[in-house]
Amino acid sequence: MRASYRVKQWGQWRGRVQDGGHVSALNQLVERDKLLEAPSDKIPLTYVFKKNYTVEIPSREVWNQDPDALVSHGLVWFTDGSKTLEGTGAGVRGVRPRVELSFPLGKHASVFQAEVFAISACVSENLKRGYSNQHIQICTDSQAALHALKSPRITSQVVLECTNSLAALGQRNKVRLVWVPGHSGVAGNEEADVLARKGSSDTLTGPEPAIGLPYSYPPSATLLGSIDNWTREKCQEDWSRGDRVAAGQAPD
Hints:
Its EC number is 3.1.26.4. This protein is an alpha/beta fold. The chain has helices spanning 2-9, 21-32, 60-65, 67-70, 111-128, 143-150, 157-170, 187-201, 223-241, and strands at residues 42-47, 54-56, 75-83, 88-96, 99-104, 135-140, 153-156, 174-179. The strands form two sheets. The protein has a six-stranded mixed β-sheet. The protein has a two-stranded antiparallel ribbon with strand order 1-7. A hairpin with a 2-residue loop joins strand 4 (88-96) and strand 5 (99-104). Helix 5 (111-128) crosses helix 6.
């Protein structure tokens, strides 16, 4: 069932209700949980080798020694993502220029998606301002987001969109993504965290999900959890009805 769902989310599902088997089972599962009809953030493996931006992950010691030296010139931005019991949000804090932005992302987005979305929103703000020949530094405390944006292998729609936006910004500017240690007293990072938390508590305008559903969640609230729970229940139903194979026997 997981494989069937993965194929469906990649847009390669060719099943029809009358086909039976996994096709019928997946349709039954979707009837039970309409969230499974929502678009997924997971995409087929895509390669992007040329990156006209840099990714840097300084050590905590470097930040502690001289944090100002790391972002001493040009345009400086901080981004963050947050997930609480109320929802998920993204925050963008511009130091130079002074900007504050927060975005509610609903209840289903993951922290990783929020972190990448925040970077993407920051890039969009820079593109909107029409900067050219600038040094633009975007700081985030998410190493996972930075590694994803540095890797040539992409399997996430939100990462691909952010990569493409960074490519557009990097055509006319020098763009640098920099890791900053979280909750370490770096003012811009702390302010971005506040904005992200604000976004997580704000009401999402529009239908859920705000962005493609992550393929993997914690099991209790996940698509994979829904699939696994449904599969277990169906197996138990079939067992109770006697639809089972005797030990040592195989169907014709």
